[in-house]
Amino acid sequence: VTAVPRAMVAMAGNSNADAAAAHGDEEFFDEADAETVEIIKELIETRVRPAVAQDGGDITFRGFENGTVFLNMKGACSGCPSSTATLKHGIQNLLRHFVPEVQQVEQI
């Protein structure tokens, strides 16, 4: 009986990793979202990366799918306990404010 819930948790927990693995190191998004993706990438480059770099980290755009922006956090950000708060409260709120198509931000 416990095998089923564990399997379900494993599947649900790997969705971001699966998205990244399915696309390798390439960016992934629907061509119909190209304009939205350009705005997202511009905001990341001009507003997010400089702030994250001050703390010794880096962040890169990986993809956009079904309203979710997928980002890769590196350097000090990858192991920082505050990275989830930065991602969810700072970056997600910024992107949602300027890009209504963005519903959430996930780290992969």
Briefly characterize the structure.
The chain has 108 residues and is of the alpha/beta class.
Strand adjacency order, main sheet: 1-2-3-4
The strand count comes to: 4
What is CATH's topology name? GMP Synthetase, Chain A, domain 3
Order of helices and strands: HHEHEEHHE
In whole angstroms, the N-to-C terminal distance is 30 Å
Uncertain residue segments: 1-14
The largest β sheet comes out as: 4 strands, mixed
- The CATH homologous superfamily corresponds to Fe-S cluster assembly (FSCA)
Q: Estimate nothing, just give the exact number of structural domains.
A: 1
Task: Please state the overall shape, judged from the principal axes of the Cα atoms.
Answer: globular
Mean pLDDT: 81
Radius of gyration: 15 Å
Our estimate of the beta-strand percent is 15-25%
Total number of helices? 5
According to CATH, what is the class? Alpha Beta
As a percent range, the share of helical residues equals: 55-70%
From the 3D coordinates, which CATH architecture would you assign? Answer: 2-Layer Sandwich
